[in-house]
Batch of 3 targets.
Target 1
Amino acid sequence: MKEKIDRLQFFFMIPSILFGKAIGITAGVIARKIGADVWTSMAIGFAFGIIIALFMVYICSKFPDKTMVEYSEDIFGKWIGKFISLVLGVYFAYAFAISSNVITLHLKEYFLTQTPYIILCLIYVVLCTYGVISGVEVVIRFSFFGFFMLWLINITMILGTVQDFKFVNLEPILDKGIKTNIINSIYTFSDIGMVIMALGMVYPMVSKKKGLKAITVSAMIVGAISVLIWPFFEVGVLGADVMKQFVVVCMQQVRSAQLTRYLPRYELIMVTFFVWSMFVQSVVMFWSSSYCFKSTLGLKKDRLIVLILTPLLVLLTNQLGKDHNNYINFLAFPWSQISIGLSIVLPLMFFMGLFVRKSLGRNIGNTKGRQ
Amino acid sequence: MKKITALALVFNMIFLTGCWDSREINELGLVMAVGVDKKKGSGIYTVTAQIAKPSSASGQGGKSGGGDQPVWVGSAEGKTIFEAIRNLAKFSSRRIMWAHNNIIIIGESLAEEDITPVVDFFTENPELRMKTWVAIAHGDAKPFIAAKTGMENIPGISMAELFRYHQLPAESVATDMLNLFRDYKSETIQPLVSALTLKTENSPGGSNQVELEGAAVFQGAKLVGWVSPEETRGLAWVRNEMKNAIIVTSGVGKEKQNLSVELKGARAKVAAQVTGEIPSITIDVTAKGDISEIDSPTDMAMSELKAKVEEESVHVIKREIKLGLEKVQKQYKCDVLGFGRAVHIANKDLWYKNMADKWEDVYPQVPVIINVSVNIESGALFQEPTNIEKKSGKD
């Protein structure tokens, strides 16, 4: 692979992908299921997610120079491999549309209420196209900036809402019971799934792969903490009953924040801070989708597939988000179930395939990637 | 590639100018305060908006002359709040903007009927901040919006300042939309909302003044009654809203003095004990304070005075809490203090199994134990209490 990133950039990429949608949209989806237990349920989801991410990196380490699209062909043969890359292409396309809608919904519902939704989708997708054409590694490189900005949001959100924080809103902890918390933690996989799948695509880009497992785990822990601060404070400040009411809960949280009486409005600051990590998430999803489709169709030119995908993704983003109730329902079902299914089944399939191949004495690892 | 980039940039320049949402500041009417009324049994809402007039509000007069009122007050009717607001545009020369609104005042008859439309409209409106103050008016909200109250140029700002400084007299609660919406939605606590009255006696010879005093008690979305300033103090102790209050203790020592005690860092903890059919509640209040005023000289030493004042302060706080509790628990039967939440936290299984559905019946019977502890730390600036050392003429 000609694109290269270093381990630090890889580290910062993970929280950037994990953060944007989870803090408001996913938190709202889970709050509607289990109320004030949203943060404990998400914590359980992240704990499982870290294990699966580690497993994914372990699989990737067997094919250090290949994306999972390539080694799926190596493990399962050409046609099954192509089918997997087609499934992944569709998954990443939807993941991109979901990610884009996080931005476009923020803009549509809180700032540009009169602007036609399709225009917002068009502008954001064109911006992401520019990012993909410029090079996904370029965008991943400024994950550090995205990470810095997301912590600025976290800190300012805490400062702006701490006077309204009531711990009693979080009690009783594990109100709905541990079993219900575990069951509902699957919704966290609509975000964790993006990271796990992205790991399988980005891994060969990392120039030095020593210690990547530890880096992945620590990045996931940092990402999970960055995210969990939000549902924790959202429940403490808004209360679970108010959280259930809103589509974009994080915006409701910052709408309730007041950074001193001289800075009573905070929404635009929040979006300005968090758009950077969202952009990393969107571009990685877009690039991964284009890479998978390119592999499925056997195309050679990157730009051709990107230019074909751009209008399709504009339409998909618009279709998915123009009715925000449908968007949220889609995330609750079937997107979360698909995400957790792919996140678990795919690495497991690769592992079993590897195991079977190894048992048959066929060495397929450590071969050069296609790019 | 450069052509595509250039095209994309040109494309974005066209579409990112925000044509659809462009709103020039000189075309906007910035709402400073809004009142919503609805007559009993009527299906018509009346929305009264107090809108700042920039040239006059700045205090410089400008072209319109110094005699101009700094605000314009308009009122319109509609079958819904939104329709009433849109009807304001029939005679308002500017488009209404809510982003700078300071306060929402709800008329008494609307509050008695249902505050849901107000809560729903203003929480769904992205322009409005959740930290906007909310109050229930004694009577209609319209006169409050039209009143020239306070020392600020804009009465809406004057009313907002009352909320900011409400802890000085500590005879009301400061409710913002966030608090109201949270309690309105909650299954285990009822809303207690700031109350406003119009009074003339506070400004001799002047116009009516808006006063923040007492509170409105809700059962779900409906106003069920009012609590007096003293009862509100009692409720505010338990709701942890008495951060910097003063209390007046009377009859201290043999001189039966009145003293002002400035309390700081008051904290209340509500805990439930679930043993039998009916749970019990314990309220623990702790506070620190300084003696700020004494109304006559005393012979008592500071340590003795502190002990007496502590004892008397405990009585005063307990009495206020009991007063408030009597009203909301026995008379209104509204759980504005979150006892249901305390029971839920103490025993969630019991809450879901036996208590949640019949809490409204159980709540009035719940026994409450009140423990108050006051620590008087100092006598403000004095080393000794005020006493008279000079001898009388005979001596």
Target 2
Amino acid sequence: MITISHVNKWYGPTFQALKDCTTHVGKGEVVVVCGPSGSGKSTLIKCVNALEPIQGGEIIINGTKVNDPKTDLPKLRSHVGMVFQHFELFPHLKIIDNLCLAQEKVLGRKRSEAMERARVLLERVGLKSQAQKFPGQLSGGQQQRVAIARALAMDPIAMLFDEPTSALDPEMINEVLDVMVQLAHEGMTMMVVTHEMGFARKVADRVIFMDQGEIVEDANKDDFFGKPRSDRAQQFLSKILSH
Amino acid sequence: MFANFDTHVITNNLSYLFLDGMRFTLILTALSTVTGVFLGTLLTLMRLGRWKVLAAFSAGYVNFVRSLPLVLVIFWFFFLVPWIAMWMTGGSRPIPVGAFMSAFITFTLFEAAYFAEIVRAGIQSIPKGQPSAGYALGLRYWQVMGYIVLPQAFRNVLPVLLTQIIALFQDTTLVYVLSATDFLGAADKIAKRDFRQFELYIFVAVVYFLISFAASYAVKRLQKRVAIIH
């Protein structure tokens, strides 16, 4: 579904953010990307739907090359859902309109059709009663669930999550993770940048560990948690799991 | 001093003052605002866009216009626009365009530079994640601007924008250099005809004050109503 091969990315002429990154996410697979801050994991996931350009290598989603100038990026992105660390709901639009905007403007759905889809998804994330509110009136956890529903409204073939729980208060993390777990069980293809190792243990098929722009470890979940091969991954795990 | 204040010179000429003068002023203000904000937004999108040449042109234009006195530009354009019109239509003599058209073009071009700076501040106040979220949903550049960035940007700078429009409303009095009949011009003509400068200038000042003051008050009310809940 998502193939990332030999991707290189620089910020400016000197700082290399991604170094020869190669991996893939199969259909229906859940891949968790973890690593210390500054390791390039968020950058990698932003490159997948070309929110950040890459300077070398290639990324292919469902047969379409992302970093090809001829690719219709907006069309490609409309099939790939993305959830951001800071939710990025549109604060000037009601919740229902946050869910309908792209359905109508990108997919060309009728208002009634978009509303229907939005209601179903809001119900699914447990926020049906909030449809007429503005994002600023919701808690962080609620906003992030709306953001997931907004992405799902486009009927994506895959979902990208960029640290979806990092900006949340601790008591709100689980309500978001529950929605993500449910999605994973339904067979959604997911690439998730997160520090939530509990989530990784529960639903991940594979875990990718990054450090200093490199993919250091790319292993099945059980291998990763059981016996990580690299020292750096071992150290990271011991720090993150010890409390 | 106010003992021989003649109110009749005002009440007898209300229709000329308002239906001719104030109408000219309000239409000029409204039209210049619409086209000025539109052009200013375009200048800002050029300035923040990818193309270096357009960005440089926009920055140059804004800085150039903002360093000129408005009254000079009004004067200058009044004499220049006929020549431009001649050149554009390929005619053999300058085509007079009239005080209103000339003033309208001047205010549009001049105010666009100020509006551009206001809109730019508004756009730059929007976190980068907002357009990213729009693009991630498959929206295109103009959709991201039109549905996500600009609606928020305009709300954020609405008070400054409306204050600038009030300033524009006051600045339209400068068309007196073209002898145009705006509100001040109309009053001035009556004043000179009837030798009643004192009454009319007081009246003009009061009217400008009341309209501007009411508008400022309305701005504050409106600002609360459209504010984004964060």
Target 3
Amino acid sequence: MALHHVRDVIRPLTLEEAWQRKLEHGPAARFLGGGIDVVLYAPPTVSTLIDLEGLDLSGVREDASWISIGAMTTMTEAIESATLGRYASGFLVRVLKAVASPLQRNLATFGGTLGSAHPWSDVIPALLVLEAELAIYDGSERTVALGTYLDERKAGESPVIRAIRLPKGSESARGAFASFTRTGFDVPLLNVTCLAVVGEGAWKDVRIAIGGTPGLAKRRRDVEEELVGRPIRVEGIAAAARSAADAIDARDDVRASAGYRRRLARALVERCLLEIVEGGAE
Amino acid sequence: MTITLTINGTTRELSAGAGETLLEVLRREGFTGVKTGCGTGDCGACAVLMNGRAVNSCLVLAAKADGGEIVTVEGLADGDRLHPLQEAFLDEGAVQCGYCTPGMLISAADLLSRKPSPTEEEIKEALSGNLCRCTGYTKQIRAVERAAERMRGGDDE
């Protein structure tokens, strides 16, 4: 449905201009990526949209240390990227293929996903375990760890997101994710994403992110530390899953109770870690 | 605001509200094959090709489509000759109430433009954003398979 409160769409051609326009309009302005979030959720106080299409922020690039996904890159473009198909054994691509529908993935951008940062996002936990950082512009160009960006963001004060940067070095990592929804199109009641390096019968590196608690996804470093360096055992996985259930900030909301979310966290962490150990994630 | 859209091969300058969706503009211009369904990107009845990719036009601001190429279901046929997908949907009886059909055809057209020989799984995935409340999807899947075969020039029987 038409957003009758939107009166103007601005199309800046430089980062500086985009940021300047945001400063001028304040919370009444929203940056526009693919536009899904704006169409569905922009509050009636938003009257100006700043379309970032003219800033040349699309595409996946790589150098010796990083893979950079431009903020205007769609989920479909990322899925079709040969570079991302190879990265972390195609883990991110597998996650993206499970998100929403092809029709929506042809519109949804990484910048839009991170600008809106919904707690139920299935993409954000995957980027957290991949230790992504954001290239942003808020008067100057800088990078910020994704976790820091999520912790520090304030409603209506988004910087210009230029790109999502993924560090190389996860080639031997295996990933698994589980997103529990009531129907195929509903947002998850909870999601769990794990990435691990295993070798010589032990956990060499483990990263776990849990989202939709119903709060925003967070890394569970306390649980990760329980596993790293330990031999791989079913009992250890079960114990880590119990710890994860205790550790999350589970709350009641319209979708599920806190208690149900803890049970989900336990089941899904166990499922993901077992999948990694069994090599089901290739 | 004024936007320029190439709709089914014809370039037009159109007036659109800053907060209007592509769906609303297309229907106002007479492209009523683009159906209004859920309005939240869940049902796919409003699907169109935008720059070659199938999208929910209810989730696209008209301003975002400015300068783009749009194909609606009205643009699939070549004059009086139906698109092979439309022929196959008729032959397979893949239509009941018909409300989801334009969106299904658009998603299938996107798929076949990139994958001339899709597997059944790929067809299911490509149609996964198009809800049909009448059928069990089997006939649409068969229709896409049949259309793919015809478009490759093969015998479909």
